[in-house]
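Handout, tutorial session.
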Amino acid sequence: MVRKNLDERPLGAEPRPEELLAQSGLTGVALVTSGKTAWKRGDIDAPFVIYSLTKPVIAAALLSLAADRVIDLDAALPDGRLGGASVRQLMRHTAGVRDYGQLAEYHQAVRRSPSEPWSDEEFLRRALGGDQNPGWAYSNTGYLLLRQVLDRHGGLASFLPGLGFTTATVAEQLPDLARAVPARSSLIGDGAQLVAGRYHPGWVGHRTLVATARELRQFWSKPPAAFTDPANLVTLGIDTRGLFVRLSYGLGVMADPGNSIGLVIGHGGGGPGYSAAVFTAPEHGAMAIVLEPNENFPAQPLAANLLRAAVLSRI
């Protein structure tokens, strides 16, 4: 249960970040910061596949295009199958676009042919057929469409330097995951198979970055103002078993404006071989990054708990 008031916390009752890390079973990387204090586990310059943790980076790139008046976030995309959905709606998952990740045939195809992904049009043909879901519904398909918008303006990779990434790469082809810390997956064939050389990143419709904790810290230390604007947040009403108080989704980010430590923003990512998460408390200058070469690792709960511990350790 998350306490509503920090003053209700018994002295010494909250674990410190180093205690949480020691008990976590983490074999990958964690970077936790609060002010000038930092806790580290593993090599923060080691590259990891971050999957949906790429979504906030896509959103930041789109926001930069909108700031330069290159695109209009509220203009309808031309694809008639989208019913007039806008970039802003896709960013917030309110366009009613079915998530290909909910399709059984998608997961069957990944297991059966991990090196041969569907084309963009095949993703869209399968996901956009039939009725779409109104209201908020998490959609990887929506971010595939947003990645296509970026492709028309130089592609996601061209925005990375301006967003604080110097060594991160966008995985596009089969060999592109080879630079990441090795991981095995039970999702891409029989038994635990090595991800690199077998799993094609084209199965991630919006694509994935291969990035380090150091670079993620750089990006999240200066997030776009739109990430923290309450006007952009949609309250989800999802039970998170106490992890968040008022879980919301904004322009490419998860958010908790009701958290007892103040506004929390971030995102998670998971897929064959890897789990990742970043959560930040901007008003405290605190952040927790977790990157793990294990698809079943609870990266998001650990990052959220590390962030809370980091903030409370200074109070």
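The second record follows below. Compare its token runs with those of the first.
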Amino acid sequence: MNPSDRALPQVDVRVLGSLRPFRTDRGLPYEFSHAVPADGVVARQLVTEFGLPLDRTEGVFVNHVVHGLGVRIMPGDRIAFCPNDTPGPHRFFLGLFNAGRDDDA
């Protein structure tokens, strides 16, 4: 993080499951804070910015509610990116099955 970003609004980020190595293999944390504009940013943009593959990212939890990658992330949100290889029953239970189909955009 750029030191000047500390003054910008932040989100708390987690990268879950099989997406973690896309961060950790490069020596990057899978839990971190990140600066976002005051008017927010679309989750899909953060996936790319964090070096995660779009085709392997199924959804994002925003403040404990799952959404598609078209959802707008706002300052103060707590987010977690979920891989598309989450086992079947868990995908339904967590709501990922529908999130992956819904862009929220």
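Points raised in discussion: The CA atoms of residues 37 and 47 lie 16 Å apart.
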